[in-house]
Design a protein that fits this description.
about 350 residues, alpha/beta, Rossmann fold, 7-stranded parallel sheet, 12 strands, about 15% strand
């Protein structure tokens, strides 16, 4: 089996590719634009494998997509390619429309055209999997039930609106053309190789450098945290057993406030890398002005994927965050190379 993966050099995509290549004989073709968050070093340990191919390209390039699909004849396309940082979407929303909506449309359409020329048996075996987010559902009140696949879309940021648009297109291509699509909507991911603009790696690295730990608003925003390797395992389950046209929510069953997440990071760092001055990492916590339209709570109901495909997360937040902190402590070289001038300018712009 050959899988065409888009955005495979980013955080979640690279974790998925490593999992597939290290646990199966499947061939992976990775197309990635290598923007600031896409890093070919994320796949250095598998880059030498004959069953791995990297293509530097953009999912918005319809001609390139058509050429690659014909050349490599994949049995599945998995779309990880996306602009994904909510803060950036507030500052530069057009980038999110370009990649998450227009780029997705061109990938979807090229894949549908390729699929339409396959034999009947090949068409039945083919899958297009869109990796999406729970943010398309909007925000929950403290006592609301978790998001299910039946929740209506109520996106509140340019990022979530762009992903909701993409999900609608995927659904439309299934219902209009019979194209065998699958969609997954996941909660907040964390783990190795995450670019240090997101909450958890940003807090780890700032703490280690004695910098302040900026928390938006009152820090009581609630998120469901999903260890990235659990997410990758769920995607594999959906790819192998999901019903075309269906959506599957993927969550970590670890709801927690942002403040509690940061406090837990401080606790783990205190155990694994105590401050040289004997102080507490919690002393570095500082509240900053909340971002516009900040959703209050996300929570994901995983009943469907558990019932139909037998998947559930294996990592608790306590075990996953300890592995994550340990990974960042052991990969200073990777950290130094990804923290470009653009990254430093972005952090300064966001947090002053």
């Amino acid at each position: 089996m050959t899988i065409l993966v888009t955005g495979g050099s980013g955080f979640i995509g690279s974790n998925f590719i490593r999992m597939v290549l290290q646990s199966s004989d499947e061939r992976v073709v990775n197309i990635d634009k290598l923007t600031y968050a896409g890093n070919s070093e994320n796949l250095a340990e598998v880059a030498h494998l004959s069953k791995y191919t990297f293509i530097h390209g953009d999912i918005g390039d319809a001609e390139l997509l058509g050429t690659l699909l014909l050349k490599y004849q994949p049995q599945a396309v998995i779309n990880f390619a996306a602009e994904s940082h909510v803060d950036r979407s507030i500052v530069s929303p057009e980038d999110f429309i370009s990649t998450n909506v227009v780029g997705l449309f061109r990938l979807l359409h090229a894949s549908k055209d390729y699929w339409s020329k396959l034999s009947s048996a090949e068409q039945n075996a083919f899958r297009f999997l869109q990796v999406s987010t729970d943010e398309v559902y909007g925000s929950l009140a403290p006592n609301d039930p978790e998001f299910s696949e039946m929740n209506r879309f109520e996106p509140n940021s340019p990022y979530s609106a762009s992903k909701a648009s993409a999900d609608h297109l995927v659904r439309a291509y299934h219902h209009t053309y019979g194209f065998p699509t699958l969609t997954t909507n996941c909660s907040n991911n964390y783990g190795p190789f995450q670019f240090p603009e997101k909450l958890i790696p940003l807090m780890i690295l700032n703490a280690l450098e004695g910098k302040r730990l900026p928390i938006y608003g009152d820090g009581q925003q609630v998120r469901d945290w999903l260890y990235v390797r659990d997410h990758c395992d769920a995607i594999q389950c959906v790819l192998n057993g999901g019903v075309p046209g269906e959506t599957y929510n993927i969550g970590g069953q670890s709801e927690m406030t942002n403040l509690k997440v940061v406090s837990k990071i401080c606790q783990v760092l205190g155990e694994l890398a105590p401050r040289s001055d004997g102080g507490s990492y919690d002393d570095l916590i500082e509240y900053v002005t909340d971002r516009p339209g900040h959703d209050r709570r996300y929570a994901v109901d995983i009943t469907k994927i558990n019932r139909e495909l037998g998947w559930q997360p294996t990592q608790s937040f306590e075990t996953g965050i300890k592995e994550t902190v340990q990974w960042y402590l052991e990969h200073q070289g990777w950290i130094d190379r990804v923290r470009s001038g653009e990254y430093r300018d972005w952090v300064a712009q966001q947090y002053g």
